[in-house]
Structure formats: structure tokens, C-alpha cells
Predict the structure of Fibronectin type-III domain-containing protein.
Amino acid sequence: MCLFLSLGIIVGCTQGTPAVHESRSTQSGLASEISIFGTSASPTTLEDSDTASVELGVKFRSSVPGAVTGIRFYKGSAANAGTHVGSLWTRAGQRLASATFSNETATGWQTVRFASPVSITANTTYVASYLAPRGSYSATGGYFAGQDATNGPLTALASGVDGQNGVYVYGSGGFPTQSYQNTHYFVDVLFLPTPDTSAPSAPGSLVATASAPGSIQLTWDAATDDVGVTAYLIFRDGDEVASVSGTTRGYRDLGLAASTLYRYTVKARDFAGNTGAASNTASATTSDQQPPDGLNLPRVPWEGGPAFYARFPAMAGTPWLSEDFFPIGYWGAYTDEERRIATDKAHGINTFLETYAGNDSSAGWMRQHGIWNLAGSGLGGEAVGTTFYDETDMWAGPGWDPWTGNVATYDVCIPDDPRRCGFTIYNALYQELNNPNAFIYTNVGKGALMWWSDEQREIGINGADGPDPRANWRFGMVTGDIYFYTDGNIGGEAPNWFGIPANEVRRAANYGEILMTNLRIASGAGNNGEPRIPLGVIVELGGQAQGSVINANQVEGAVWSTLIHEARMLGYFSHVFSDSTANPFTTDVLNDSRAEYQETRERVKKINAEVTALARVLNTQSYVWQFNPSLSTMLKYRDGAAYVFAMQKRQFTSGTYTFTLPAELPASGTIEVLGENRSISYSGGRFTDSFTAEYSHHSYRIPD
């Protein structure tokens, strides 16, 4: 299935990616040649439906002088046929060189070299292009929106740096000046830097200061170089211990022994690898105090985790009191067959938030498969909690009117219109339970999250700890559910009640930014802003309105948005209320074996495995720190490493963002990107990463 945009760009297709090849050339390659995108880059669209003749190009710069030796382009299919010609242009449109591709392969990267290399000037914009006479080109829509692509001295510019990038012109060839939605057409250059044999000067005025226990702060003046300094190397007692970027003038050395003298020098290095002379030697002695465990930053209010659950007798002897346990709940689980419970467990579910179709064997099956039930008696065994009626806030409303005993039907309250007896129901359920030590769970919907006043919300969430002395109940956990992707009415309601622009309603960020934020504000009212109980958000796994769909990427983004906004549990809603070919009705997504839900089932299993592996981290208190104002982030520290969880805020959908680290963390090193099989080298206390869609998120581990 493909999604088409104008100019014939397909932004997404379910096709495989061909193996990467380089076409042969009559001129042998040079070992030191550099390209922007390398040999592993491949487009999301292999063959665009556009078959018109078109010149496609990319704007780029080099930070050092050198020579462009040739042009590359990516061929996604044999349909991109005909005679291809590669060209190099000045920013003003003067063609500097061209060459015709030959000996092309059927797919993959194709390469041609100019008869003579073309010298280019550092920090100057040029355009590389190729003619696709039969269209059918490869592309990735939106690639240059807010992000560039850099390899060594070469950079394909982000749109906005020098006009829009991803340029084209229709016809039989010519200078490409038009652009469409920042599209990457997979055009590249081969570049040979000019040899540089001059080393930078020595950095000046190095100063070392014992700034805090276990650390020494270094500062120095810039070195000079004929091309430019790319890095500074830090030496401690003669051994190189770190490097920072060429724009950095300081470094904080951490993890040092107390009451110890350390001596430092700094050297500059340029792009060619030339290393200059050492700076002056600077020394300092660390204090006699040991550094604290963790970071010296303000903390986010903390509720939940093993210490909280230990208050409830039914939790004794269960994994809830272990740091390695993080609640992963399934709302609406069917417990009438063991196979269903086993399937839920195989997907990583460890908690049932509401159950259906139970029988005499259900409790034993839950215990056998290690699933804890918040919809039980709350007296122990697998039934560690008890659940109040779902969404009482919506079908009973806020207030103290009498209750008829009916649930979510006619004649609920007296009077029945308007309904204002929800608080009466909570009190009645609490009295009927007759167990003040029970872990009580409930889920709220649009009433408490959207329609109620602030005071009503505070009464409903906080009960006996809230502003109304008539309230007797106390919840142990509250979740909320509003389905931003699949609710048929939310598009009209969210702009009115939440002030969200209509085009920003169906985004993953709203699950955390709106729902978790509102829950935490309500729970912390009258308590110095500190939430009283664990809170969470239920994420839907399927459509709620006719034909509505939430895909696996959106599920994952919504889940991580709740966690980044301090959810103390992860929750899924099992049901699908729509009935369409794309999203057929089902009462239990994780147990529905149809192909429509396969990707969602597999993604849920992946998410839950990652959360389980991070339970010890997620069960620690977060720190207050702003890495980038355009990102929602969560910072934690555990077992000698910092963990950063991040995704874009609602109003941003894609881009490259720079993270500024707190000074307590090393200024340079390597960051592991969890679950993505990659790492990021960083320096100067900063690193950069890309977020390609509104649901994109990343988790980072930074060794201290």
C-alpha cells in the first residue's frame, strides 16, 4: 500500500529494500573519497509513480576545501531507466561539470566520476543533481524538514539554511530550483578534501578548578588552524581521557578520587587529523568529600513504585514490591480460557485492570501465569486490588445527588437529568467494600479529564484527601482514557476543551502532554503540587469509531508519551468498536489472530519487553532538566548511568534536535540508543538526534 502526494511522491510503501550496490566505473575509486549518505542509505519510496523527465538535486556544503570528483544517485528499481547525467552547479546555477552514467546496476547506488575533479570552496553552497529522463525516481518525503545530513566535512543542508532543499526541475535537464515538501531525492557527491598538513596551535590559558566533589572543571582559550579546529583532546596525568568538539572551551572531569592531585593538558586537532602542541599544564586537587550518588538536580515529585505499593497488605509477597516490577496492564481482559491468559502473559502483560467472563478457574490461571488482578477482591492472592466502576465520571457525573443503584443505564441518579451522583457512587462502593486497606483502582474518561471543573476533578481523583469533607474513598491508582487517534468525536471536542489546534489532535504526544498532565495536576491539588497516587493512561489498540485505525507506531508513541510524562504504569485497552476492513471489530486485540492486528500484537510485545527491562530505571525518581524546549523529556539515573527518554512536543512532527546535558554528566563520550542498535558520539555536553514523525521517541543511556 502506498500514499501518494503531489509531484508523484510516495511517502510510504510496503515494499522491501533492495541490496545496496555500486555501479562500476571506468575510473577506479580513491580511498579517501567521502560521500554524504554512504552506501547504506536507502529511500522510503523506491519507485515514484511520476514518469516525467526531471532533474533532481541536493544542496550541500563542505566545511573544508577540496574537490568534487563525481556524482551518485540511488536507483530503487529498473523503471528509473534511460540515460542519466550527473551535474555539479554553483548556487547561482552555473554548471561546473557533468558526466553520463554507464555500466549501471538494476538497483542501488549508481556512481559516475567527472573527467577532472572540480575544486570547491569551504562553507559555500553547491548543488549536485542528476537527470532522470523517465522519472520513477527514489525519494523520502519530508527528509530535510528541520534536519540536515552530515558526514565528515560534507553536509546536505536542512531546509531553511539556504532556501529549501530537495530541488528539482522538469524537462530535459537544467538547474533544479523548485522544491516540494523538503523531499530527499537521494543525490550525492564524491568529495576529496584538500590535503592538510598544518597542525593547529596550542590552546591557551588552561585553568583547572576543583568545582565539586569528585570532579575538576577545565577551561581554555581557542587554538587556531588554517582550516579549522574540529576537536580538543584532554589529557589527565599524561593519558588522553576525553575529547570535545572544536567549538567547546571547557570540560568537566568526573568520577575522580577524593583528596587527589590531577594534572591536565589540552591539544587541538583539525579535520585532517593533525594534532597540535599541548597547552600549558594546569593542576587541581579534588575535595575530601565523596560525590553523591545520582545527579545534583531538583527532583520530579515521586509517587508509586515499591514503597507506595507496600502500604497495601494484599501486595505483600508479590513482585509489586520489587524494583524489577513495573505494572503493565490490560483493560478488558477475558479470563474464561487459559489460552487467553497465557497469550496476554506472552505479550508482556502482568496486570489485569478489568476482566470479563471469569469462571472458577480464572484465578488459578492468573496465579499460574503470573498475572496480578486489580479487578478482584483486593484481599490477596492474585487479587491484589479491586476496581470501581469504569468511567463513573461520564455516566454518573460529578456530585452528591442520590444514586438509584443502576450502572451506566437509565435512572442512574435522582434526578436522572442532569446526572450528578458520581461522588455518591464512589462513597457507596467504598462503604460496600468495607476494606480501608484495599488497593482501589478506577479508570476515568472525558468527565474527569475534559468536562468537569478543576474542583470536581480534584474531588473525584483525591476522595478523602480532596477539598470535600463528604468524600470517604481513597484510590490506590487512577488511569484515564481519551483516544486521540480513534475517537470519532475527539476532533471536535479537543480544540474546544483542551485548546488543541484541529490539525494537532491525532498525535501521540497528547496522551502524555494532555492526559497525564491533567491527572497529575488534579492529584497534586492541595498537596504542594505533588501527586498523591500512581497515575497512568490507557492507550487503545484498535479503532473506536467506524473505520478508525491506530497503527503500531502510534500505539508505541502514545505509550512512551505517557511514560515520559511520569506515568507509573503502562495500560492498554483491549477492545475495538469499529467494524471495517481496515480495522475489524474485536473484543480482544492480543488474542485476535487476524493479520490486521499482527503488527500491533508484535509491537505491544516489543514495547512491554523494553519497559520490563527498564523497570529498575522507571522505578526511580526523575530529575528536573530541560534538554531542549521543543522536546518532552524524562531524566533518570540508575546504576552509574543517566537515562534520557524523549519525544517531540505536540506542535512538532519531525526534525533534528540538540540535547544539552546537565553539567554533572560527562561532557563527551558515547551514548547508547536503547532498542535501536546504534550509538551516538557526543562532545561539549551536547548531542543531536532525529525524530522523523509525530510518534517518534528515543531512549538513551549515558554512562557516568
